[in-house]
Amino acid sequence: MLKRKLILTALICNMCLTLASAPPANAADDAKFEMTAPVTEAENGEFTVTLKGQNIQDLFAYEVKLGIDANNVEVVKATTAIAGFSVPPILKNNEITFAHTKVGKVTGEIGNVDIGTITFKAKKAGTTIINWTNIKIVDSSLDSKTFSPNASTNFVKIFGDLAGHWAKSDIMQMVDKKVVEGMDDDHFAPNMNVTRAQFATLLSKALDLKDDTGNNPFTDVASGSWFENSVKKAYAAGLINGIADDAFAPEQYITREEMTAMLLRANAHATGINIEDMTVKESIKFSDESAINDWAKKAVALAVESGLMNGRTESEFAPKEHASRAESVVVLKRLLAELN
């Protein structure tokens, strides 16, 4: 058995060398190729792509190449229903190579052919793109041709606690933009409260604020703390105020009116328009308007009017309620969409 496998391995290696010198297919070739993925979203990150060919003429052996980002995805296995011998997938320079050959004096596959399936596993939450860039085919006479399918498919590994969540789509889009991250590889904690330092950090990342060498006026933003740089950048850009001249309260949960004020200042910084120069066209219509602090009323009115913020319900803004991680991500997405 071992000797037979060694012979087959040598055979397929020779086949790969033959394929490497295959000339490109000409326009007269009618073969077409497609890649499908029955599942395009999952919590466990595992998905399978199926490679298919149409109008195939005498497929005796093949070598396929798929482009991936090896930092995001790994290969679990590759299989084919075509009888013969396969070389397991090889990863090199973000390219997967999978080869297979029939054995003996037999004819190749003809017509519509399921070439093979490859199962991947996404390493972290976000969108993974698989590109089918190349297939080289050898027929039973050992003549070869090369095709460029130019087919691709996307797969999204979602955080396990986002299944069915109202903000899932927005959160995953912001994960792909590298603006937000999960608490770990499998959890986002969308309903967890956000601190003032965390939201200042999100704004700094979303707007790509530059480092600032100015003084830090807040005694409670310790030197070397994980949020020191983000708070300094946000303060220098005019996005944040302290709860006092020398106190920022970084670990205090942010309220919805505080988040709204920071959001408006971020919009003003990015657009170069002062909030003082903005005009409120419609008055606040929430039943809890009186609960909004005077310093936040204009920001709330402008944010609701522009669509950056919504109420917690149709009738209530809930200005003193703490903002969740999901809410903070959604408003950042709206901000970036408006700026773009």
Question: How would you characterize the overall build of this protein?
Answer:
By secondary structure, the chain is an alpha+beta fold. The chain contains 7 helices and 11 strands. The strands form 2 sheets. Strands 2, 4, 6, 7, 9, 10 and 11 form a 7-stranded mixed sheet that branches. It has a 4-stranded antiparallel sheet with strand order 1-3-8-5, with no helix packed on it. A hairpin with a 2-residue loop joins strand 6 and strand 7 (95-101). Helix 2 packs across helix 7 and helix 3 (196-206) crosses helix 4 (228-236). The N and C termini lie far apart (62 Å).
Globally, the shape reads: elongated
Helical element count? Answer: 7
State the major sheet.
7 strands, mixed
Structural class: alpha+beta
Q: How many β-strand runs?
A: 11
What is the rounded distance between the termini?
62 Å
Which spans have pLDDT < 50 for at least 5 consecutive residues?
Answer: 1-11, 17-28
Give the strand content.
25-35%
Q: Estimate the mean pLDDT confidence.
A: 89
- Radius of gyration (CA) equals 28 Å
SSE series: HEEEEEEEEEEEHHHHHH
What helical percentage do the residues reach? 25-40%
